[in-house]
Specification:
The chain is of the alpha+beta class. The chain folds into two domains: about 270 residues, Arfaptin homology (AH) domain/BAR domain (Substrate Binding Domain Of Dnak, Chain:A, Domain 2), CATH 1.20.1270; about 80 residues, SH3 Domains (SH3 type barrels, Roll), CATH 2.30.30. It has a five-stranded antiparallel sheet with strand order 4-3-2-1-5, with no helix packed on it. β3 and β4 form a beta hairpin. The radius of gyration is 41 Å and the shape is elongated. It starts with a helix and ends with a strand. About 15% of the residues are buried. Keywords: Apoptosis, Coiled coil, Cytoplasm, Golgi apparatus, Membrane, Mitochondrion, Mitochondrion outer membrane, SH3 domain. It is a peripheral membrane protein. Its main location: cytoplasm. This is Endophilin-B1. InterPro entries: AH/BAR_dom_sf, BAR_dom, Endophilin_SH3RF, SH3-like_dom_sf, SH3_domain, SH3GLB_SH3.
Length: about 400
């Protein structure tokens, strides 16, 4: 290109016309201003690009929000991020449940394990520690089974795709530039061939014009070769990028599997926590020699035997041996209720419900305010108040 520029400058020095240098000036200006013809990608390729961008954006959002759910403390997240970047192991950190359980156990020692409050603190504290341990296991498993694959995609596969896409864009720009140069060279070659004037008295103009035409023919061959090379490189890079983009389908399959594993781990975690809490409720519901007795009678029911039960003893409707058929409706106070949602009975003392049905409900002394006794024909059992709309 330098030798051609030198020849053209010499031609300009001895030629009154400046068509040749004007061509190069216009050509470079068009390429610099981005006016060159743009090579368009096919529709399938554009769809692959759009799908890949969508996958990257939503994967990033889901990853960040999952981090927030698993670790709500932003300071702890920053600390874990720094340790990861420094390639160091994150130091073990107790969960909030474990810390709370430890505080309760230490408080029980101060108040005395033999006191009602101290013995209850021991039971609740031990349960909190187990809940904290379950949470720790859930966080570790979720990080391995769900967060790690998402992060590997963002930091691995997506970086490779982005790198190849940038390379493809560079190849496209090179191809567009070659197309623009070829178009300009053809135009200039045509003009150079039409410049000679055989009637002119100065034969030097004809000689110089003929030399310029030969130079443009040489330049045309050179640009055509560069265009073929640029087209080959562009096609090769487009094929590589297309294969990577089509691999997004495999990424979706992998993320789907990881998502199902995350749900399973989450379900196991909540089930385990529910089990621990049920055990704690049974522990707190047992009779204890240290339980406190109620010394006053509830208003309106001076002879209610449940008034003389310990505070932490189960009510007649909460014992495992409750005979629901022995519960009798009061002489007055029954009401009709409309069922709002389906409800499956957890045990034989409860009554299953179906949405929109009408049942008769009433309460009995000592019953939890969140529950009522429901009757449907010959069936009877406890029903949750939140599932009902009481009718007047």
């Amino acid at each position: 290109m330098d030798s051609l520029g030198t020849k053209l400058c010499l031609l300009k020095r001895y030629h009154p016309s400046d068509n040749f240098c004007t061509f190069f000036s216009e050509s470079f200006t068009e390429e610099k201003l981005g006016q060159a013809e743009k090579t368009e990608l096919d529709t399938h390729f554009e769809n692959l690009l759009s799908r890949a961008d969508c996958t990257k954006n939503w994967t990033e959002k889901i990853y960040r929000q999952t981090e927030v759910v698993l670790q709500p403390n932003p300071g702890a997240r920053i600390e874990e991020f720094l340790f990861e970047k420094l390639d160091r192991k994150v130091p073990p950190r107790p969960t909030n449940g474990e810390i709370l359980g430890q505080f309760m156990l230490e408080a029980a020692k101060e108040f005395g394990p033999g006191t009602p409050y101290g013995s209850t603190l021991i039971k609740v504290g031990d349960c909190q520690r187990r809940l904290g341990g379950a949470e720790r296991e859930f966080l570790q498993t979720s990080s391995i089974s769900f967060l790690t694959p998402l992060r590997n995609f963002l930091e691995g596969d997506w970086r490779t795709i982005s790198k190849e896409r940038r390379l493809l864009e560079n190849r496209r720009l090179d191809l567009d530039a070659c197309k623009a140069r070829l178009k300009k060279a053809k135009t200039a070659e045509t003009k150079a061939a039409a410049v000679p004037d055989f009637q002119e008295a100065r034969p030097r103009n004809y000689v110089l014009s003929a030399s310029a035409s030969a130079l443009w023919n040489e330049e045309l061959d050179k640009v055509s070769h560069e265009l073929r090379v640029a087209q080959t490189e562009f096609d090769r890079q487009a094929e590589v990028t297309r294969l990577l983009l089509e691999g997004i389908s495999s990424t979706h399959v992998n993320h789907l599997r990881c998502l199902c594993e995350f749900v399973e781990v989450q379900a196991m975690y909540y089930s385990q926590c529910h089990k621990y809490m049920q055990e704690l409720q049974r522990e707190l519901g047992r009779r204890s020699p240290h339980s406190l007795e109620v010394n006053s009678h509830p208003a309106g029911s001076p002879t209610d035997p449940s008034a003389f039960l310990p505070l932490n003893s189960p009510s007649p409707l909460e014992t495992d041996t409750l005979q629901i058929e022995e519960v009798q409706p009061p002489a007055s106070g029954t009401r009709k209720a409309k069922v709002l949602y389906d409800y499956d009975a957890a045990d034989s003392s409860e009554l299953s419900l179906r949405a929109d049905e009408l049942i008769t409900v009433y309460t009995v002394p000592g019953m939890d305010s969140d529950w009522l006794i429901g009757e449907r024909g010959n069936q009877k059992g406890k029903v949750p108040v939140t599932y009902l709309e009481l009718l007047s």
